[in-house]
Design brief:
The protein is of the alpha+beta class and 150 residues long. Helix content is 40%, strand content 21%. The chain has six helices and six strands; from the N terminus they run ββββαββααααα. Bound molecules: zinc ion (ZN). GO terms for molecular function: zinc ion binding.
Amino acid sequence: MEIITSNKGNDKITFKGHMFVIKHEGKKYYTWRCSKKSSLNCPAILHTSVHKTDPVLKITHHEHPSEPAKIEVAKAIIKIKETAKCSGANPSQMYAEVVSQLDDYTRARMPVEETLKRTIRNYRKKKNPIDPATLDELEILVSHQSFDIY
Ligand SMILES: [Zn+2]
């Protein structure tokens, strides 16, 4: 199990190749639903402690296969955004650095690079200065992806 933070600032939990989003913060435990609840009406439900530990699947059935590579991709994008927040590096460099840490299978599924380069080219055509240190820049890049886990 791993906790990742989405671009909306909401935590998501990855568990066995599936991603879960918060459904209810109870006093004794938190309830998480599959991130594909809305798109595929997937019924899977996970409980954790209020400290977001000790995951227990309450409804184990998913309406779809697990997608570990997609989760790795989502984590990589979040890592790029985190890097953007605290460094002034060029987005292309940040991308290259994060991607270099991925395995081949995940790297092949990274959707960002072309969008990233296109955006940079467009910026330069307009001669707008790029400030890659701002999170907004990366938000724009990420929101161009048709990425249903967001
Ligand atoms: Zn599911």
